[in-house]
Amino acid sequence: MDKRTLRTRRVALLLTLLALIVAACDSDSAVEQPTPLPPDVLRLLFTYGSEKDAWVKAVTRTFNAANQRIASGKRVVVEPVPVGSVEGGMDIVEGRAQPALWSPASRLTLPVVNEANLAANGKPLVEESECRDLVISPTVIAMWRPMAEALGYPEKAIGWADLLKLATSPNGWADYGKPQWGRFRFGHTHPDFSNSGLQSIVAIAYAATGKQRGMTPEDIAKPDVQQFMREIESSIAHYGRSTGFFGEAMALRGTPYLSAAVLYENIVIENNSDPIKRSRLEFPLVAIYPKEGALLTDHPACIPDMPYMTAELREAAELYRKFLLEEAQQRRALEFGFRPADPSIPLTAPFTPENGVDPRQPQTTLAVPSAATIRAIRELWEQQKRPVNLTMVFDISGSMRERNRMENARNGAAAFVDQLSDSDRLTLIAFNDKQTVVFDDLPVGPNRERMKREILSLIPGGGTALYDSIAFAIERQQERLSRDAINALVVMTDGEDNQSKRFLDATALMDRFGMTAESEVDISIFTIGYDLNEAGLRPLRIIAERGRGAFYEGKVENIREVYLEISTFF
């Protein structure tokens, strides 16, 4: 994609808060064509936020087994397809999917997607007042119980102002008598990809303005609001696409990885109530319902107003939605850590203090802002988010000649560069049996096109000194660590190490640099095992785990998507 085309597309998508979603999903967001059904069966496609996937699939099996029919006598068969909240809406707007029912994670998504459909098709996608909430899960700040207790939990109400104080203090947890905990490390997902990320920056903006509703673009433009956003974001370890990733990573990596993260209440319940998951926790997690107010993840179920919607599809969608709201399905939501949308159903177990939640909270809920205000918040976040100080470690060994590996990997890495912000800094180290610094610590903005040209001109040859090359990159990164930036490596290799002299395995490498799940080393390492067998993937998993990043298995067919997925962490 040339620069002019990319910039045009970004501007258009920014107006709908989707700058990165469409770029990341063009190749795989279309729903597969279904198998033809008998003429007396009506297929109903249901796309929904993946957060409620387990509940949806459980109750949909019950629906499909019941042979429910519409007035014409056709039996309705529901096909449930989980998809990102805003991504699912844009799939409808841009014609990639034709669901009869769509349920994003939050009503916060509706004005964004409605505005996009108004621009594309001349009318809103859905009538917001006609959408029905299916289940509810407040968006919370998940924190380790001892850390929450240091802030006054559960007696004292905790909020974004407390996190701001921690984020800006050079002493970190020492201010609360806990110097052994180091600095405060925070996480939330990327707002262009994740509902909880969008909710995070909206909640931060609300806290900065002191409002619970009626927030305007003029409020967002105030210097104190900008400063509040910048200082909260300064504590971010990294971003990401999946709320579930943060929940899983916190459980596996413990307190040194993150002090707190924005999660859904149901994820806190799941980690504490499941015996296997609880056994992995260093400490129990607790849900902090911010005293400034919380946003509800209310999972509205909406019938799109699109030309493909026939009278039969609408009838079937209403039949299925009514089923989801019946008492039996609503009570089943409790099993999965969701609050029923039906307020007459009491919040019994697992909604208990032992599972880190309080069914009496939140006391204050925040209103969904206008689309214009959400746009202003998104633009503010882009300006104030934590930049990245990044090194790409790229395999150019001879085996990269096979099966179009090099061509596809070069294209994926170039697409990755397109997603970085102008203020980010990037180094490229190409390696085979030696290391070559192709460009070094350059700001992305004025050098983006040069960076892509350099990547696209890489030529394969030679052996694979993987461990020594990662060591080389870590040492250079340590020389320029920035407290104000996300410091990270992205390592891609298609071969097992056969040329390293300093380090012979992943464990020795990570031991040398003191990188463990418990360390305070402020470098995250993301690894891609490219067309590798399991023996080759294993050390890359170790490096990503101990480097507090993430591991991805890449193939020739999906390496571009893998690079784009990793870009969401920044």
Provide structural commentary.
By secondary structure, the chain is of the alpha/beta class. It folds into three domains: 18-130 and 301-337, 3-Layer(aba) Sandwich (D-Maltodextrin-Binding Protein, domain 2), CATH 3.40.190; 137-297 and 366-383, 3-Layer(aba) Sandwich (D-Maltodextrin-Binding Protein, domain 2); 387-567, von Willebrand factor, type A domain (Rossmann fold, 3-Layer(aba) Sandwich). Helices cover 40% and strands 16% of the residues. The chain has 22 helices and 17 strands. It has helices at residues 3-14, 21-25, 53-65, 85-93, 109-121, 145-150, 160-168, 195-209, 217-220, 223-233, 243-253, 265-273, 275-280, 311-324, 327-335, 371-384, 405-419, 444-456, 466-478, 506-512, 534-546, 559-567, and strands spanning 41-48, 75-82, 101-103, 132-133, 135-144, 186-187, 260-264, 285-288, 296-297, 300-301, 339-340, 388-395, 425-431, 435-443, 486-493, 524-530, 551-554. Strands 5, 6, 7, 8, 9 and 11 form a six-stranded mixed beta sheet that branches. Strands 14-13-12-15-16-17 form a six-stranded mixed beta sheet, sandwiched between helices. Helix 7 packs across helix 10 (223-233) and helix 8 packs across helix 10 (223-233). The longest helix has 15 residues, at 195-209. It is globular, with a radius of gyration of 24 Å.
What keywords describe this structure?
570 residues; alpha/beta; 6-stranded mixed β-sheet; D-Maltodextrin-Binding Protein, domain 2; disordered N terminus; Rossmann fold
